[in-house]
């Protein structure tokens, strides 16, 4: 008699589609997720469940794979089967899904997607996983904490070891390392920015958001949907991490002597900081050039400016290493450099597994060139803010030191490094440099 099949649970099916797109097509989870939710017509709680399943399973797959492998006699698995197991392990060890529901829905899923063959294996592995807690599994599969702290935390907090080593170096000690790695594994709060002159923080508060501590333009929307806030829909406000707001403000608010009318955002796409800078420039009678190398991202910058008055922002699609403007003509420049993004791991669940140490080496060369161009673009006495959403020293203070080391016309005014586990922001770095007036 043919076996009766239960219908596959839609949020779990959607989560598997996201894992497949990320693994097989190199997709970005945060970009593919909305498309998959639409395709499966998921909203509200179901959409939330699919999002948590996909993001958690992708983010934590380093740990979950170690647990899965410990339950296998032969470590080779079809990639689709491993994806189903990762989703099952996430439900068993990190969510409050009852064991029987996590196991039976995973078996249904593998039957529907791969066939009957691996269903017994999925059932057996997940039953084995369900017999122990997350803590017990970590104790079993991770290196000993006392003997090898970084190795232990790499497995327990599911980060590649080389990333753990670089983050520890950036922190300067191991004291806060576990707190940082754990913060990378938590979903970030949704922070809004009220673009000055276009919206007030009070308007965002009236929509249920709570004003941020550090940025005077920020408000955190706990659990709400930003697309339901009219100011966001109208482009008078936007979604922007508080750390990014503070970087834009470091550029706009640093004291300057003399003219203060011509601002440049050298790497502007997709335009979050440029929109805040454009709003401030409009209030202060300044103009902003927002430059971005990739034309499709330059188009995003232009649309981020929709609510600003005409004539304040010029968007350019150009390679910042070959500037299209006359040197020494800007008063303030922001170089928000392309970087490894290792300070924004909360937002991009797959990125920690895609990056390699070689990526950092390549980026450092480009970062130094872009900072040099920024300093050439600013007038004597003008300011440059160099920023990254990475705390890795090779991309932050060492870039600044290398560029300062070969110039005799520039001083470091100050710098800051933000952290998810301390300030609740992305790990943004910013250094303010001044080109000497007498050079
Ligand atoms: C960290 S992102 C900038 C984020 C942006 N400032 C914001 O707040 O929305 C870095 C940007 O630099 C761009 N980029 C990379 N190489 C560039 C170059 N040579 N010249 C100009 N932009 C470049 C990337 O395409 C990317 O959009």
UniProtKB/TrEMBL annotation:
Keywords of this entry: Methyltransferase, RNA-binding, S-adenosyl-L-methionine, Transferase
UniProt GO BP: methylation
Source organism of the structure: Nocardioides zeicaulis
Protein name: RsmB/NOP family class I SAM-dependent RNA methyltransferase
Taxonomic path: Bacteria, Bacillati, Actinomycetota, Actinomycetes, Propionibacteriales
Record's keyword annotation contains RNA-binding: yes
EC number: 2.1.1.-
Domain SAM-dependent MTase RsmB/NOP-type, residue spans: 163-439
Gene3D superfamilies registered for this protein in UniProt: NusB-like (1.10.940.10), Vaccinia Virus protein VP39 (3.40.50.150)
Active site residues according to the UniProt entry: 389
């Amino acid at each position: 008699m043919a076996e009766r099949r239960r219908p596959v649970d839609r949020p779990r099916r959607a989560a598997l589609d996201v894992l497949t797109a990320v693994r097989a097509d190199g997709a970005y989870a945060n970009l593919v997720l909305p498309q998959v939710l639409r395709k499966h017509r998921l909203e509200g709680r179901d959409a939330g469940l699919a999002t948590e399943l996909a993001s958690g399973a992708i983010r934590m797959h380093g740990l979950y794979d170690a647990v899965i492998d410990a339950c296998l006699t032969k470590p080779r698995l079809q990639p689709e089967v491993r994806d189903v197991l990762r989703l099952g392990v996430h439900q068993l060890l990190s969510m409050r899904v009852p064991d029987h529901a996590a196991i039976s829905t995973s078996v249904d899923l593998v039957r529907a997607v791969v066939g009957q063959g691996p269903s017994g294996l999925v059932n057996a592995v997940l039953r084995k996983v369900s017999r122990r807690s997350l803590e017990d599994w970590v104790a079993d599969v991770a290196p000993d904490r006392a003997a090898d702290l970084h190795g232990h935390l790499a497995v327990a907090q599911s980060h590649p070891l080389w990333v753990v080593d670089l983050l520890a170096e950036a922190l300067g000690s191991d004291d806060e390392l576990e707190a940082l790695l754990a913060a990378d594994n938590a979903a970030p709060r949704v922070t809004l920015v009220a673009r000055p002159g276009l919206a007030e923080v009070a308007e965002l508060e009236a929509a249920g958001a709570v004003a941020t501590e550090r940025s005077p333009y920020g408000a955190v929307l706990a659990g709400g949907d930003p697309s339901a806030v009219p100011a966001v829909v109208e482009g008078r406000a936007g979604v922007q991490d508080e750390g990014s707001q503070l970087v834009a403000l470091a550029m706009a608010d640093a004291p300057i002597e003399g003219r203060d009318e011509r601002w440049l955002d050298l790497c502007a796409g997709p335009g979050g900081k440029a929109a805040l800078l454009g709003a401030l420039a409009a209030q202060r009678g300044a103009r902003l050039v927002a430059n971005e190398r990739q034309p499709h991202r330059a188009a995003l910058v232009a649309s981020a400016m929709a609510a600003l008055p005409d004539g304040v922002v010029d968007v350019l699609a150009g390679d910042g290493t070959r500037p299209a403007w006359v040197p020494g003509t800007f008063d303030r420049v922001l170089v928000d450099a392309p970087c490894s993004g290792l300070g924004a791991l909360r937002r991009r669940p797959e990125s920690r597994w895609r990056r390699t140490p070689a990526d950092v080496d390549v980026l450092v060369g480009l970062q130094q060139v872009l900072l040099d161009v920024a300093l050439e673009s600013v007038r004597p006495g003008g300011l440059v803010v160099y920023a990254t959403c990475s705390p890795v020293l090779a991309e932050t203070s060492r870039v600044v030191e290398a560029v300062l080391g070969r110039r005799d016309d520039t001083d470091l005014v100050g710098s800051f490094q933000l952290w998810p586990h301390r300030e609740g922001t992305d790990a943004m770095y910013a250094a303010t440099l001044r080109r000497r007036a007498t050079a």
